[in-house]
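Need tokens for this chain, all 428 residues.
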Amino acid sequence: MILFLKRISCFVHQNINHVRQGGVSVLLRKIRKLFREAMSVPLVLTAIPVVIVIRFLAPLLIIRFGKLRGDRIGHFAGNTELYLCERDMGMHGGTTHDIFYVSQPVCNQQLKNMLGRRLHISHAAYYLSLANRCLPGSSRHIAPTPPTDMDFKDLLGRVHTHLSFTPEEELLGERKLVDMQIPVNSPFVAFIGRDPAYLEGSQPYAHWGYHSYRDMDIQNFVPAAEELTRRGYFAIRMGHIVQKPLGVDNPKVIDYATKYRTEFLDIYLCAKCHFFINGMSGLDSVPDILFRRPMVQVNFIPLQVIRAGSATTLFIPKKLWSTHEHRLLSFREILESEAGRFVLTEQYKKAGIEPIENTPEEISAVVTEMDDRLKGVWQTSDEDEEMQQHFWALFGESVACNPNLKQAGIYRARIGAGFLRRYRELLE
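Here are the structure tokens for all 428 residues:
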């Protein structure tokens, strides 16, 4: 009860600004959440004796409670997989048992079902977690899930993926591919560009303009998709709630987001694609982190938070245009300034910086580079390697000089060779 009263006090103090800023919808959502917590007080009181018994068991077995962030697929997939990797690496001790609840709304029920095969998930953990926090010494019984989907501990290359499909799900996936006019065992590449319509449609109670700098035009991906079909692939446009259809006549370029999308296929296609092309969407955690699929990151921003440790990642960043000096900022200027880690649209505006999307030509170049690399036919040059080394030296210096960044110090990812050739002056 004391904890709940503190929650009310913090709620009033923290949310006055939401009304001042016009965020009434956000405020109403939080009021509903606070009301639900108030209604849960009897169940929390009932759970306290159970938690006390659990405390007595601690010398033999430490039972902990944790939350899985179910509302955003990037965190639901990525954070949870990193937790499983930590557990496999013995980082949580051998005498612990963790029970989780999933925050609402759940973004993907198929993913929740698959995680439930590897984790103990129960709604009762929500009440037990609240009861645990009401008692002193609660920290020992809180499951330490990673706060982000960044692999700071270099785990993904050392631990096998944890999720798999049942035989029934495999058959369902094959049938769904046939329904999409993709023959079984035909290779396909999935791609997605961050679309503001998704969050505005799925969570309309919040204001999402604060990260509009991450949005992009999906039409810039079309030439790369067309080239992939000439190379023998199907190209599948992923997404859920999008602003506009692709409008492409090529039967091997499939607008899955507007015609076929299901929660099951979101996971299945990410797991089975030959590689994945991501444009700042949280969905990339599913192919990249959960299933270790090769990844092309385009329009990446901010530059300093790239997943640098993955050897199967190729990326090209958004360019940053100085509206004051009418020129592109160099990598050094970006990495040695706050601009390399801006996470709010307003920060870019105040700094006089305009993020510039990758062109269709830039996207096509990095996509074909990935395909050639996977086929073993990519031809590099000494100059390409020198530019790579120069970029990662700049990146490493910027990370080492900033105590707020947590990078593993292992840089296996590569920035697109064609991008560096085109913008070699940014290395100066």
